[in-house]
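Minutes, project huddle
Topic: does the predicted pose make sense with iron/sulfur cluster bound?
PN asked that the exact inputs be recorded in the minutes so nobody has to dig through chat later. Recorded below.
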Amino acid sequence: MLPSYLALAESGELTRRAARLVRMLEACDICPKDCGVNRLRGEVGFCWSGAEAVVSAIVPHFGEEPCLTGTRGAGNIFFGNCNMRCAYCQNWQISQDWKGQRRNAVSVEVLAGAMLALQEQGCHNVNLVSPTHFVPQIVAALAVAVRRGLRLPLVYNTNAYDSVPVLRLLDGIVDIYLPDLKYSDNAMAKEYSVAGNYVEASRAALKEMYRQMGCDLVVDEAGLAPPPHPPQRRRGEPRVPPLHRRGTLAGRVPQHHGAVLPHE
Ligand code: SF4
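Predicted holo structure (tokens), as shared on screen:
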């Protein structure tokens, strides 16, 4: 599978998109928090992130969905900091210890090198984990990495707290969206993740991902696409209507253990 960004790189559009996204950092509205800070001058907003991306780990990973890990692993790049504050985060040291993460700030060139290193290790893709607050740096690094030979598909592995205008700029760049939809209740999103507008933002984001990618989960002959599993519900818990009954995506998006996988 040839990644979709190659055509944009050839036409020069990838570089133009990167420049446009980097300019957005001057009054940051990269995510629905819409902080308005000038990250290029070192100001930080809710995600505690400035001009450079923060990369906590670069590793072939076998803990993702089987259709991503295959036999040689997904090429995970774990980004530090986050645009949410989930009380239950299993990666707290990475997502919320922003002081500790300052030592992991990397240049665009280093991030490009990380993508290429994962390719050299044989990974099936570049799996961007918690990429939302670093989309400009990622696209800028991608443009550099493509010039240096990157050919892996790009996975956007997100908390779904994404901005629609930014997602539109990723159209034709991302090959696979992997949004972890977390809440259908803003009060809970606010209490447990400090994201009081999560429901509207994430649904708009999912609709945009769906607009770009359609609904078919396509894997190659070695891939695996497991059937959707119904969520486990304890006795007495309120029933949460599945996404397809809410009328927005009408059951057309494959779901896997709570994740939604609009692939192409
Ligand atoms: S990316 Fe960070 S600074 Fe920008 S709007 Fe989101 S939380 Fe605020």
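Observations noted during the meeting:
- Residues 213 and 264 are 6 Å apart (CA to CA).
- Residues 224-234, 237-248, 257-264 have pLDDT under 50 and may be disordered.
No decisions taken; revisit at the next huddle.
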